[in-house]
Amino acid sequence: MLTLLKSSTESWARMYFKASPLMVCLNRIYGFFQKYFIPILAVTILVVKLLIVNVPSPRAPPEACMGIRGEGCSFIFDEAHYVPAVRKLMSGEAANNEHPPLSKLIIMAGMLLLGDGVGNAAGWRVFIAVSGAVSVMMVGLIAQKLSDRKSVGYIASLLFATDIMSFNLSSIAMLDAPAMAFILVAVYFTLRRRYILAGTFVGLSLLCKLSFLSMLCPILVMVIAQSLRGRISRLCKLSFLLRNLGKVFLLAAAIFLLGLWAYDYAYGAFQTPFDHVAFMLNYHSTLKYTNPSEVDMPLSWINPINPFKPAPYYVETVKLDSVVYHPIAYWGIYSPLWWSTWLFFPIYIYKLVFNIKRNRTTFGEVLLLSWVAFTYLPYFPIAHILERWVFPFYFYVTVPALAIGLGRFKEWGDWMTTLLTAIVSAQLVWFFIWFPVKNDLYITILRLLNLPA
Questions:
Q1: What residue segments make up the domains of the chain, in order of their start?
Q2: Which backbone phi and psi does 428 adopt, to 5 degrees?
Q3: Contacts with 415 (C-beta within 8 Å, 6 or more apart), sequence order
């Protein structure tokens, strides 16, 4: 009787707490965050970026900062190339023609909206920050399209959002973040078989930065795989394939060339867009190094034992009572996510072979393997054979595939989930340590934890 009474009491207690207003409220909040985690994370990242968007800000007027050198200009890394170029474009002068114009026009839009002057760098970076937040959201949505579990999208977007190189590149006035946002939207629409929209965004991405040509290969893999599915005749499959390829790649080429033509016509830069393309390809083919020891070779990008030396994109050093710290420190640096490449390749090759043997779908494995392979491995012959300059931030295009690929570990059992938990934890700690802008409290916490400040 006492046992029955105790059991009944515990049951009523559980029911009461579950139905209590506090628990109902907490359950609703949890459900809301679970349902909208990806957009909430994207908005959070955007807010964080906007809080630091004007740090550092210029102490010199724009006319004193029209070159890559200048006292008080407060350029972070390649902002020294692109911000002066945008200022020339705003005055009607063609500039920085070795790169396509769209990212620079996006930077220009921010400068026209928020201004450009002493103490004001927000205009340079605001739409780059928006692009970075869009990319965080798209990584999560792409991951969810490749998985039956929504939590895979949550993890993928979190891993990408906390990659410090990706965060920094999408916080400063460079060309990469808009190109990344457009190409991720293109990948998402390709997964949904919305090929006209996919082709449109591929073209816009290439108008931002030509190096995103490497993403055409995984998109091509997707279109081929989707077009050849189904129990229809080979002739029909071939017809679908050619039609879909035309929607994506011919439209992308048309948008890219039309955009270049509009720029060349407005600024009197080149006679035809083909002349402009030839100039860009010729310019980049001449960027060769003479001393290999000066180059961070591609293997060092993913090597945890002998990594490349972090590049100081913009670092302010303060010394107080023999203590040195860095309130502003934008570093070009790897993260644990980069090192996971050593796990990614063998695990995904194993899963690919495993699924082929059991006649299961291999679409996700093929897509992610091709994404990492085509956006990373070509830099080995480019650097070692062609002797072209390569830089670690080129790995930025590969990072979304690694984030999505690791997110899918959650589908493959407890052991893989434990491994994923360890990687996510390391990534979050790494992001906390290398976050670029730190106030006094932040620095105090780092010093108390005996971490680099």
A1: 1-35
A2: -65, -40
A3: none
Q: If 0-12 CB within 10 Å is exposed, 13-18 middle and 19+ buried, where does residue 22 land? A: exposed
8 Å CB contact between 98 and 175 = no
Number of residues in the chain: 453
pTM of the model: 0.93
N- to C-terminal Cα separation, the chain: 63
Tokens of 33: 């965050």
360 φ/ψ angles, rounded to the nearest 5 degrees: -100, 165
pLDDT tens for the chain, 453 residues long, are 445 445 555 555 455 555 677 666 767 776 766 778 999 999 999 999 999 999 999 999 999 998 877 789 999 999 999 999 999 999 999 999 999 999 999 999 999 999 999 999 999 999 999 999 999 999 999 999 999 788 999 999 999 999 999 999 999 999 999 999 999 999 999 999 999 999 999 999 999 999 999 999 999 999 999 988 766 777 777 888 899 999 999 999 999 999 999 999 999 999 999 999 999 999 999 999 999 999 999 999 999 999 999 999 999 999 877 788 899 999 999 999 999 999 999 999 999 999 999 988 899 999 999 999 999 999 999 999 999 999 999 999 999 999 999 999 988 888 899 999 999 999 999 999 999 999 999 999 999 998 888
DSSP of 322-347: TEEEEEEEEEE---HHHHTHHHHHHH
